[in-house]
C-alpha cells in the first residue's frame, strides 16, 4: 500500500537529494569543527607557533588529528604536553569518538 502511494508521489518530487558531494553538510560541519578546535587551542595556548587540525573520520567530525608546536610545551614531558591540549579541549573531546595528538616545543635555532 505504501509502495503505491510513494510511486504516485514520484512525479511530484523534483529530483533526488544527494547527501554527499563536493560541498556536503558533512564537509561543512567538519571544517567548522576544525576551525572551532583551532580557535579554542589558540585562546588557551597563546604560544602556538604551528597548529594543524584535520578531520580523519571521513568527514563526519567524529575523530581529529591535532599537531601543535607551542612555547608552553618547553620543558614538559609528552604526557604533560598532551594534558594541556586535552584540558583545553575538554568539552569538545566529550563529543568526539577519538583524537590523535602530536605535540612538540618550538625548535631553537642554535648555530
UniProtKB/TrEMBL annotation:
Name of the molecule in the record: BolA-like protein 3
Gene3D superfamilies xrefs: BolA-like (3.30.300.90)
GO cellular component entries: mitochondrial matrix
Family: Belongs to the BolA/IbaG family.
InterPro entries given in the database record: BolA, BolA-like_sf, Mt_Fe-S_assembly_factor
Lineage: Eukaryota, Metazoa, Ecdysozoa, Arthropoda, Hexapoda
Organism from which the protein derives: Parnassius mnemosyne
Highest taxon of source: Eukaryota
Any Pfam family hit: BolA
